[in-house]
Amino acid sequence: MIIQSQRVKKAILTALADEEMTKILNTIMHHSKSIADITRENNIAHTTCYRKTKLLINEGLVRVDKIVITPEGKKFSLYYSVFKSVNVKYESNNVIVEAEQNSDIIKKAMARFYSLE
Questions:
Q1: Phi, psi of 9 (to 5 degrees)
Q2: pTM
Q3: Which domains does the chain have, with CATH numbers?
Q4: 62: exposed, middle or buried (C-beta count within 10 Å: 0-12, 13-18, 19+)?
């Protein structure tokens, strides 16, 4: 799908230009993961990971898959990337951003939703 919104285009380009955001997106592209998992796998500072993940959520590039409550009563969220791939093209003073939705995660969410019956 071609991204029409200038705000979303800018968010995608900003995320791709940022090394930590790119690492976060790559880590949660195929499997939902917690901030602790993302920081451990990418050697990103915990606070940086939280801050950048929050920015990605606010821009609509990342979503919460589910909230987990541990036996001790602590809560944490699992995050996933909304897009599976992104292609950027600059042509005649026009930036074209094409993105493929992350349908694997969507299918998993739908299966979980319908299993609640």
A1: -60, -45
A2: 0.82
A3: 6-114 (1.10.10.10)
A4: buried
